[in-house]
Amino acid sequence: MQDIAGSSHHHLNMDHPVGPLLYTVSCMHCMSVSLAQDGMGLGAMWGEEKAVEMLRAAGFDNIDINKLDHDFQNNFYVVSKT
Q1: For residue 52, which phi and psi values (nearest 5 degrees)?
Q2: Given pLDDT bands bounded at 50, 70 and 90, which one contains residue 44?
Q3: How many CB atoms lie within 10 A of CB 45?
């Protein structure tokens, strides 16, 4: 799974290189599209902590979060169930 590399805690995203852009996209697009389809409205900056929480709730017990040196914006999750 690929998702934005951010924290679920707003104060921890203050130094994110494109944080303001991601929050704007989240509010103006991601959340409204999600809510329009009866989704949770999590948006683009729902964060690693929420992603791990939801993956665990879905039954994934092996969760590795990988980052690429050249990609400051994304996390790459490799998950599996045992």
Answers
A1: -65, -45
A2: low
A3: 23
